[in-house]
Write a sequence for this structure.
């Protein structure tokens, strides 16, 4: 049976978001139906942005959890973050790298992260029940999100040497290589501590396919679609 959930995992600057977008577009094809895409990195950034805008410290997990519950945070069918009755869209004018770091901080909180992962998992289930043939996620928590859903899934991990990843992210954001490298090192350490997929721990896991991040996103997406069509 072909997988219903496809997750594109990878570290900062690996290109997983672009690969996920391109993969979803290829799977949709000319008809444009039956495939749902959720960018989970944007969800973490949006939540970090909303918490900061409320004047709440990101360092306290219990306070962040209280904010989540008070605001009745959830995901819309379109994958947008809803706080109370209002949509909280990501605002690109915010410092991308700063909120990437803030997102990494809240991802390290066991309470808040559990709520976020549960919301993402619920969104995936809703899409599948609504008839989606494929759900594509860019994330670092693929196996954790999908493990409790009980439908076939496959996880791809974009492996990219940190030197290349730093260059790519610095070019995207205009930040210095030194700053980007420091932030990436901090996030990598947090990911390891959280048990998220990393280049070091992905090898022994079943149903996780490594991809060479030096290739273009389009080529990687086509490789993913080819593997889905002819699993081996």
């Amino acid at each position: 049976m072909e997988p219903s959930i496809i997750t594109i995992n990878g570290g900062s600057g690996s290109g997983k978001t672009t690969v996920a977008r391109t993969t979803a577009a290829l799977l949709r094809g000319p008809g444009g139906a039956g495939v749902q895409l959720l960018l989970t990195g944007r969800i973490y950034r949006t939540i970090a942005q909303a918490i900061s805008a409320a004047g709440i410290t990101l360092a306290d997990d219990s306070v962040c959890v209280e904010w989540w519950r008070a605001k009745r945070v959830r995901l819309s069918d379109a994958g947008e973050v809803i706080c109370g009755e209002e949509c909280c869209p990501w605002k690109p004018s915010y410092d991308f790298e700063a909120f990437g770091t803030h997102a990494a901080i809240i991802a390290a909180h066991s309470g808040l992260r559990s709520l976020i992962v549960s919301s993402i998992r619920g969104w995936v289930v809703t899409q599948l029940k609504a008839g989606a043939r494929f759900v594509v996620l860019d994330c670092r928590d693929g196996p954790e999100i999908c493990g409790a859903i009980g439908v076939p899934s496959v996880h791809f991990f974009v492996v990219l040497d940190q030197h290349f990843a730093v260059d790519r992210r610095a070019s995207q954001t205009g930040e210095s290589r030194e700053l980007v490298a420091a932030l990436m090192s901090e996030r990598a350490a947090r990911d390891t501590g959280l048990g998220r997929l990393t280049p070091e721990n992905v090898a022994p896991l079943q149903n996780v396919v490594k991809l060479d991040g030096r290739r273009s996103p389009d080529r990687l997406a086509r490789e993913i679609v080819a593997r889905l069509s002819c699993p081996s």
Summary: The mean pLDDT is 81. Residues 133 and 180 are 37 Å apart (CA to CA). The first strand starts at residue 5 and ends at 10. Strands lie at 5-10, 35-39, 74-75, 81-83, 86-87, 134-138, 153-159, 208-212.
